[in-house]
Amino acid sequence: MASAPSDANHLRAEAAQSFAHELVPLEDQGSGWRIFFIVAGSQCGLPAFLLGAQLAGSLGLIGGARAAITGALVLATLASVSAYTGSRTRMSLAILSTLTFGSKGAQLVRLLIALSLVGWFGVAISVLGATASGAIADMTGHLVAPPFLSVPLSLAIAWVAMRGAQGLERLGMVLIPLAFAILGLGVWLSVPHMGQILSLPGTGHLGFGAAVSSVVGDYIVGAVIQPDYGRFVRRPAGAAAGAAGALAVVLPLVLVASAVPGLMVGKDNLIAAMIALGFGLPALVVLLMGAWIDASACLYSGGLSLANQFPRFDFRTIIAGSALVGVVLALARVDTLFVPFLVALGVALPPIAAVQVVSALRRPPPADAHTIEAVALRPAALLAWAAGTLAGVLTSYEVISISGIAAVDSVLVAGAVALVTSFTRSDR
Q1: Where does the signal sequence lie (predicted)?
Q2: Which site from 10, 89, 384, 395 is most exposed, i.e. has the minimal number of CB atoms within 10 Å?
């Protein structure tokens, strides 16, 4: 009789930790709309606005739209399988890494994931501060130093990350209508000039393959961390549909619609274009909210990985510490040196997702996180990860390629090796 209150207290404590160390209970799972709002909201920010303008500027609006749709379909496929795995196992990415790579191998995986995500958080708030500062100067003529914007906003970002998937979902529910209102306004203002916009030739700076790679690379880390959100969805098919719908439908719409006003007024991103059209303030609000949810998602998943790596520390303490590290990176402006490292690190992350998906689908889900078999290393999984990473590197340097996209090649090779070895390895 005494165990029931104890179990209830434990679950409440884990809920406060966003189930960083446990499987999500069935009663805490919801519908696939949860993951849709999180993923779709993450697309409504400055990276997508800049990328949309770059695609249209290089390939023209029609060519850019084709590249956007192709890259989005690739991402939708990868993210939906990843989200399906999270829903089926009810595990975070960090717990899945223990199941897949063993307790020792998972330590390296979690550190790489955390380093990448916390690093991107620092880059995001640095770019956000600089962009918002420039937008305010253009609208008002007054210069606000970027740190006076990025540092306070990092507190709001950390607050949402501490609230977990529910906080990200609610922010996405507010952001998506606002973003599409601004995008719709920009397209509507451009309608009288649409013939001229469609006739603009592309610069050819990016070829079609490189443009598709840019779209995939824009959210490939997000596709990898989908188990962190999918575990909160009751039906695996619903989790897959939520992620696929957000990326296959919302992402191409954002990329194409955000490019149209810029092509009309000759600006390189939506925010600058809307300022020129006299709608800078609402565009700035969308910019801030888009960066808010994107950076919060990075901080949240990075915090989950660190919480599993250092279980003695409280999840919210880890979030606060990670936010502080990101702020220091932003203030020191080391992001300009850190980005190439993060991009290189991104080659190693997609194969992790592929190996974990194969491993999770080939094994029956454990009853709880404590029943995961205590294996120090799973060499077959590590081999598949290494093979996928090597394939991504070879594609990046144009040595040899399957699809022409580094992230896709790394996933295909890692998944194939993991699937083959899953039938033969002794540590199943």
Answers
A1: none
A2: 10
The 3-state secondary structure of 18-65, one letter per residue: CCCCCCCCHHHCECCHHHHHHHHHHCCCHHHHHHHHHHHHHHHHHHHH
The two three-digit tokens of residue 186, written as one number: 């920009």
What one-character DSSP code corresponds to residue 30?
B
What is residue 214's predicted lDDT score, i.e. its pLDDT? 83
| Tokens standing for residue 260 | 């149209």
Distance of CA 252 to the CA centre of its chain: 16
CA torsion sign for 380, 119, 226, 25 is positive
User: What pLDDT score does 428 carry?
Assistant: 45
Distance of CA 358 to the CA centre of its chain: 21
Q: Are 139 and 412 in contact (CB under 8 A)?
A: no
CB 269 within 8 A of CB 290: no
Q: Provide the pLDDT for residue 427.
A: 47
Q: Count the neighbouring beta carbons within 10 Å of the beta carbon of residue 198.
A: 12
Q: How far is CA 236 from CA 77, 123, 321, 347, in A?
A: 14, 33, 33, 27
134-151 residue pLDDT tens: 888 888 888 888 888 888
Query: Which residues in the chain come in under a pLDDT of 70?
Result: 1-17, 334-346, 365-374, 424-428
Say how far apart CA 157 and CA 124 lie, in whole Å.
Answer: 11
The pLDDT, as a whole number, for residue 257 is 94
Q: Look-up: residue for tokens 């990670």?
A: 322
Q: So what's the pLDDT on residue 39?
A: 93
Could you tell me which CATH number the domain at 27-422 has?
A: 1.10.4160.10
**Read out DSSP for 170-221?**
HHHHHHHHHHHHHHHHHHHHHGGGHHHHHHPPP--SS-HHHHHHHHHHHHHH
